Structure formats: structure tokens, C-alpha cells
Amino acid sequence: MQINQHVAKQSFGAGLGVSEEAKCFEVIAMERGDRERSNLWKGILLSLAERGLNREALELGVMDGLPGLEAAFRRFFPRAQT
């Protein structure tokens, strides 16, 4: 019996939402994209806005140091802290 062990690399961007009470979180966005570049994150942030995320109400963004993500986040949510 042969097993096909082909593995394909694919990048995804995910956004998690946390309640004010920080009791739970949920995945609020997930998109497949071109590695971890600014365009992927712009698309995710735009999608969130189109689904009703209030750009003025967002207070904090927690990221892992990806320059594309931070740049897109700062442009989209200029009032939020990172």
C-alpha cells in the first residue's frame, strides 16, 4: 500500500475577535492569500468592515510583528493601539 505524501504550502490570514470581558474569542475572518503581505490583510480588514465592524470602536490590535499586517492595520484603524 502506497501513501501519497505530497504536501502543499498555503498561507492563510486569520482574525480573532475578543469580547470586552475577555471571556471568549472567535474567528471573525480567515482568508487564503499570497503569503503574509499587506494586500492579504487589507482584504481581510475590508471584509470585516463590509460585515459591520466599526472602525472607530476598535481599540486594540495584537499582532505578531508582520510588517504587512501592521501597516494595513494602522491605515485601516488609525485610532487603535497596537
- Helices and strands, in order, run as EEHH
Count of the domains: 1
What share of the residues does DSSP label as strand, in percent?
15-25%
Record the strand order, biggest sheet.
Answer: 1-2
Oligomerization: single chain
| Largest pleated sheet | 2 strands, antiparallel
How helical, in percent, are the residues?
Answer: 25-40%
Return the structural class.
alpha+beta
Number of strands: 2
Rounded mean pLDDT score:
79
Shape: elongated
Low-confidence stretches: none
Radius of gyration: 15 Å
Number of helices: 2
Q: State the end-to-end distance.
A: 52 Å
Would you mind describing this structure in some detail?
The chain has 82 residues and is an alpha+beta fold. It has one domain (12-76). Helices cover 28% and strands 21% of the residues. The chain contains two helices and two strands. The chain has a two-stranded antiparallel ribbon with strand order 1-2. A hairpin with a 6-residue loop joins strand 1 and strand 2. Helix 1 (38-50) runs parallel beside helix 2. The mean pLDDT is 79.
